[in-house]
């Protein structure tokens, strides 16, 4: 992935290509994309998949929880997650990785699957590394 974004520091271009790569390369997912932090909510960014919720309050749903706690959320069954926000009723499991740069919440990387228990600790490890690569090349200060 670093080859795709190492020459481009613009956050829109890089996160667009990152979402596309995830959509193409990850098996058994139905949504991959970004939400960006604005004031007290997350705003929809580049993604691959069906149309999604455009605004998520910090602290609500899986994405809002990841943004509030600054911890990756691995949810084996979204139907059992208190306050889950169902943007796509086909989604059954989800992983959300917070994007933090210079101790500032930038947003989250959100990936959904139509299969329960799709995501594990290995996915968590590699997707957190994926976010680290984004942080290395993208100039977030324009967000």
Q: What would you note in describing this structure?
A:
This protein is of the alpha+beta class and 143 residues long. It is 31% helix and 29% strand. The chain is built from 4 helices and 6 strands, in the order ααβββαβββα. It has helices spanning 2-5, 11-25, 61-69, 121-137, and strands spanning 31-38, 41-49, 55-57, 73-75, 93-101, 104-113. Strands 3-2-1-6-5-4 form a 6-stranded antiparallel β-sheet, sandwiched between helices. It is globular. The model has no long low-confidence stretch (mean pLDDT 92).
Give short descriptive properties of this protein.
single chain; 143 residues; alpha+beta; six-stranded antiparallel β-sheet; 4 helices; 6 strands
Which sequence of strands runs across the widest sheet? 3-2-1-6-5-4
End-to-end Cα distance, whole Å, is 21 Å
DSSP E strands, number: 6
**How many alpha or pi helices?**
4
Q: Report the biggest beta sheet as strand number plus sense, adding barrel if it closes.
A: 6 strands, antiparallel
Series of H and E elements: HHEEEHEEEH
Q: What's the oligomerization state?
A: single chain
Percent helix range: 25-40%
Shape: globular
Mean pLDDT: 92
Supply Rg.
14 Å
Derived from helix and strand composition plus strand pairing, the structural class reads alpha+beta
Beta content comes to 25-35%
Unreliable residue runs = none
